[in-house]
Structures are given as structure tokens and as C-alpha cells.
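Example S7 (C-alpha cells).
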């Protein structure tokens, strides 16, 4: 499996990025995980023409080529960060590359709740008609007190959380495979959104 992992932050020092980097290393024998930084994307604004920013087109291309997507979201004021919302708006408005794409949501926070509210909000957003991702059901990976969760080599030091993450990741690989087989059997194609510049 090839997965695209997105740290949902523009912070240079983020435990959500560290979590994805740990997953990239820990599961290297089971899947290829590539990180993509959304902090280099411009803030979303409706374009006046059909030109899409190069970084947005790059993100869309990587999502389309991946078997699935892993998003690690922080929680700011009980919500996802603006930079993550902006990135999803770009995808929704342009390529809709997340349509039917398997997505796993994980999250880390300095507090004890581990971005639970942000993850719930992110599920709602990804389920919207213009994104329509296939979200891994019944799963939350909540890493609380994340500032002390990694050693100097970037390893997750909580054995119970490592075991939990391993079980979730195995399920996600299976979920990705099942989703792929279901899509192969699909007999209809969803119509793409008509953008402002395409309207009469």
C-alpha cells in the first residue's frame, strides 16, 4: 500500500508530524508512507479563472496516486487548524481528489483528550458531498500529553499506544483493500462538481 500522510498544521514543531514520522518508520515493512506539508499551500480563495496553484495541484496529484490518506490533526479551540480546513477547501473546490479515497484520522495534543473534538469535526468535513472520502469507521487514535510521548529518536514511548496504533493501522490496510475492491465493482460514476468558471 502507498499512503499519503498529511500533518494538519503549519507549525514547524508539531507532535502530529512526529506521530506521522513515527508511523512512516514503524510501518515501513507494511506500507510506503509519504509525508506532504500543507503549510506551503496558499490560503484558500476562490480563483477568478481555472488556474490552480501549483502546490494545490501537487497535493491533488499525490492524493489521486495514493491508495489512501492519513491525516494527523491538532486541536485548536475544539476545532481543526485553519491551514487544514483551507487545504481541504482547495481539494473540494478543484480536483475533489478525496472522493472515495480511504482516510485514516489520527491526532495528538498536549492535553489529555488527544484532539478528539477536532477529529469529530474533521470526519464531518470529509463526509461532505464535495469531499466524500471513505473514512475509516469506528476508529479514533487519540495521543494525549504528546509533548512527552516521543524519545529523542522520534519513537513513541507509550507501549499501549504503540499496540493500539498497530491494530488500527492493520485495520486501515484491510479497509483500504476492501474499499478498492468495492470501487472495482461500482457500476456508476459520480459526476464531478461544476465550478464557477465552468458555468454559463
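Recovered sequence:
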Amino acid at each position: 500500500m502507498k499512503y499519503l500522510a498529511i500533518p494538519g498544521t503549519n507549525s514547524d514543531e508539531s507532535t502530529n508530524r512526529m506521530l506521522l514520522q513515527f508511523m512512516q518508520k514503524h510501518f515501513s515493512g507494511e506500507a510506503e508512507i509519504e509525508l506532504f506539508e500543507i503549510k506551503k499551500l496558499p490560503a484558500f480563495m476562490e480563483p477568478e479563472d481555472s488556474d490552480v496553484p501549483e502546490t494545490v495541484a501537487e497535493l491533488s496529484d499525490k492524493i489521486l496516486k495514493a491508495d489512501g490518506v492519513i491525516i494527523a490533526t491538532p486541536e485548536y479551540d475544539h476545532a481543526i487548524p485553519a491551514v487544514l480546513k483551507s487545504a481541504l477547501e482547495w481539494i473540494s473546490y478543484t480536483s475533489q481528489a478525496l472522493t472515495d479515497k480511504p482516510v485514516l484520522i489520527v491526532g495528538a495534543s498536549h492535553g489529555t483528550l488527544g484532539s478528539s473534538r477536532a477529529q469529530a469535526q474533521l470526519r464531518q468535513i470529509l463526509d461532505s458531498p464535495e469531499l466524500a472520502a471513505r473514512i475509516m469507521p469506528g476508529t479514533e487514535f487519540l495521543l494525549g500529553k504528546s509533548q512527552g510521548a516521543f524519545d529523542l529518536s522520534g519513537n513513541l514511548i507509550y507501549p499501549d499506544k504503540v499496540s493500539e496504533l498497530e491494530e488500527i493501522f492493520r485495520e486501515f490496510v484491510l479497509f483500504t483493500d476492501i474499499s478498492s475492491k468495492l470501487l472495482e465493482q461500482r457500476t456508476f460514476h459520480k459526476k464531478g462538481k461544476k465550478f464557477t468558471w465552468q458555468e454559463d
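Notes on this example. The chain has one domain: 2-198.
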